[in-house]
Amino acid sequence: MTDAPYPKRTAQPRIVYEGKYQRMVVRGTWEYAERVHAGGLAAIIIAVTPEDKVVFVEQFRVPLQANTIEMPAGLVGDIHAGESIEVSAIRELEEETGWTAEHAEVLMIGPTSSGSSSEKIAFVRATGLTKVGEGGGDGDEDITVHEVPRTQAAAWLVQKINEGYELDAKLWAGLWMIDHDLDGTPRT
After folding, report:
1. Pair 84, 174 in one domain
2. Mean pLDDT of successive 10-residue segments in the chain (188 residues)?
3. Helices and strands (H and E) in the chain: how many
4. Which residues make Cβ contacts (< 8 Å) with residue 91, sequence separation at least 6?
5. Phi, psi dihedral angles at 111 (to 5 degrees)
6. Which of 28, 76, 120, 139 is the most interior residue, by most CB within 10 Å?
7. Which ranges carry the Nudix hydrolase domain (predicted)?
8. Distance (Å, rounded) from C-alpha 50 to C-alpha 129?
9. Do 22 and 118 contact (CB within 8 A), yes or no?
């Protein structure tokens, strides 16, 4: 395959705006966002408490002008350069929810919105949870932690949609990954 009919593949990127956290890039006819730091990778943490409750976070998201329900998540390496995905995930889990984990396992990495951003997300399963604090996020965040019985989590999310919350679509993949390995095999 030649690049001749695909100039967007060979066009040089041009930064048209750069802020503290994101930049806007034009490449050929495409416009997209990319992270300024952290290598463009975020981690979404799939966490179930010893009481079999799924950990969700609620926070106001300025771009949507609405409260959202999400799984805990954060940028990889935004605080400590070179930090592993697993260490970043455990740090973010504790910061946002007050839970820490003995172990974190990267399940998969993929794009979040490939038509508008170069960002990728790592789904990380956190296990061996212990409550160590209240959570709530850092000084710039106002996070409410929800712990929902795993067997009721999907119904609870639908209820939140009906109440007007915005839900991160990755929640449904995260719920599936609680009970399944990536090959579809049920987890025991």
Report:
1. yes
2. 61 93 91 83 96 97 94 87 92 96 96 91 97 87 95 97 94 94 86
3. 4, 11
4. 74, 79, 83
5. -70, 150
6. 76
7. 38-171
8. 7
9. no
- pLDDT at residue 7, as a whole number: 61
Q: Where are the beta strands (DSSP E) in the chain?
A: 14-18, 22-27, 30-35, 41-47, 53-61, 66-70, 73-75, 99-111, 120-131, 144-149, 166-167
How far, in Å, CA of 8 to CA of 171, rounded? 32
Domain ranges, residue 137: 39-179
Q: Note the pLDDT of residue 36.
A: 84
Residues 116 and 162 occupy one common structural domain = yes
Residue with tokens 């799924």: 54
Q: d(Cα 84, Cα 118) in Å, to the nearest integer?
A: 19
| CB 105 within 8 Å of CB 15 | no
pLDDT at 6: 63
46 close to 178: Cβ distance less than 8 angstroms:
yes
Please answer whether residues 149 and 155 qualify as being in contact, where contact means their C-beta atoms are separated by less than 8 angstroms: no
Q: Rounded to whole angstroms, how far apart are CA atoms 13 and 31?
A: 10
Q: How many domains does the chain have?
A: 2
Distance CA 109, CA 39 (A): 13
